[in-house]
Design goal:
8 helices, 27% helix, disordered C terminus, alpha+beta, four-stranded mixed beta sheet, 14 strands
Length: 249
Amino acid sequence: MGLSSNIIWHQTNFDGLKSILTHKKFMCSYSLEDIHWKSSNLKRAFPMISFCNIPITDLYEYLKNNKEGKFTGKYGKYTIGLKYNWGSKCGLAPVWYLNKGALCLHEIMQYHKNLEKHPWGSFEHLIWDVVSHVKNYDGSLSKYNFKSYRFYDEKEVRYVPQLSQLIDDKIAPILTHREYDNYKQHNKTALINELHLPFEFSDIAYILVSSLSQRNKVLKLIDFNPNIIILSYEQVIKDIIGISHSIKN
């Protein structure tokens, strides 16, 4: 098995999976990113859809819920796996992981204040394109109870809409922390209804469920498509990863 995968994964809850499969599209949402460099940090939200490029044989930690200590998924009980070539055609790009002390990150972030200016010129467009794809190599992930978390292990790939599209649709390409909180409070969600990424069932390779008891209701959502493999998290861990001996009941 290679170090990367021909499958990209997206983890969600059942309502999220039902919406994705029913409408055959992923919705963009604002994601609040906390970028640290040297003694500074920047919290800004960008519109995106996130996937990970972890080989199925390495999904152990991704299928584990650190808060519960159970295998119910880090970000949800359902994981949809799509073919990488679909993501490539849609313009997804691997995240640029940088250490907090990286000299290039320090140089880039010297210009982040340009993103507060209006209107933007071509230089600000370039800075936005770069910063919207930057993530720290490691850091805290308090929402999921990780004091020290290596983001790099997720091999994240992102769909970030083109800036020209956002401007044409009058959608803010970047939000401050306060603007992000206000957006979620006003809309009851971080989703952006106008932005989505379509797919066909033929683009799906796997759907993983935290329990096989959920298999039948997922089958209904995909019209009993025989070409989509449905596995439980336990099956992946025991039969594919093969490390069931380390699981504590």
